[in-house]
Amino acid sequence: xxxxxxxxxxxxxxxxxxxxxxxxxxxxxxxxxxxxxxxxxxxxxxxxxxxxxxxxxxxxxxxxxxxxxxxxxxxxxxxxxxxxxxxxxxxxxxxxxxxxxxxxxxxxxxxxxxxxxxxxxxxxxxxxxxxxxxxxxxxxxxxxxxxxxxxxxxxxxxxxxxxxxxxxxxxxxxxxxxxxxxxxxxxxxxxxxxxxxxxxxxxxxxxxxxxxxxxxxxxxxxxxxxxxxxxxxxxxxxxxxxxxxxxxxxxxxxxxxxxxxxxxxxxxxxxxxxxxxxxxxxxxxxxxxxxxxxxxxxxxxxxxxxxxxxxxxxxxxxxxxxxxxxxx
Length: 328
Fold this sequence. Notes:
Blueprint: E1 2-5, H1 14-23, E2 32-38, E3 42-49, E4 59-61, E5 68-69, E6 73-79, E7 86-90, E8 93-102, E9 113-122, E10 136-141, E11 144-150, E12 163-165, E13 169-177, E14 185-194, E15 205-210, E16 214-215, E17 224-225, E18 233-239, E19 248-258, E20 270-273, E21 277-280, E22 311-324
């Protein structure tokens, strides 16, 4: 494997980059050669095959197909924000990681494989990720902009890792940029953990929030909603649970931006407080809205939540993250 420095990345740490890439050389099998060039916001990868009958069109870089390919080579030119690259800031280093995989066609004698692909940079001294980097995702809907992401322990900045030991807290914050829209209250209508970035009928899932805003995990753990700093944000301290330990986990949520004067039993944020029962995050005087959390929450209103007059719903996916078993 070759480590190639791009002229566009002169200001990056070529030492970090090359040392880390060369450390992966032993993982590359003798039947191929991989050239990786890490630019400031893109990367190129050339995979050269020596195996007969290998179909280079079947190579994948994360979720991306080859940009071009021939009988012996597959070429990828991709942005580091594409292909499901994972971005992690640790100390003075900035890492982008992914996997190059090959799944042969049925009947082929060639074996499937997966190889790590890593671009490493030195974090510039005057650079710090904005609050929605590196693990925030943004979704636009109408004139609203929804965000969801992993935060550090005090919610003052982004998480520096996406690995969380079993029993630790995963700080999650969601927000909505209202722009010129009327003031709205952001709610988490439902959230489930899954092992896939898209939900399918066969997906293995773990419910976190359901029944129209009831934080189920708060009944048996230290999971809770944190006090609001502003109506357009909601903060969740989620204690890790025994689900897909060591695997990639994705948290699928339905974000709801709603008229703060229109709360009811289906438009709420409720969590269970030991010794006190279910409480409404935004107004303890209306805890009765949470009474249905252990039954079935239904609204007396027939108005659609997607009407645009009172609020909007946006689906979002957070991850991948990994829950690690401290005893393994």
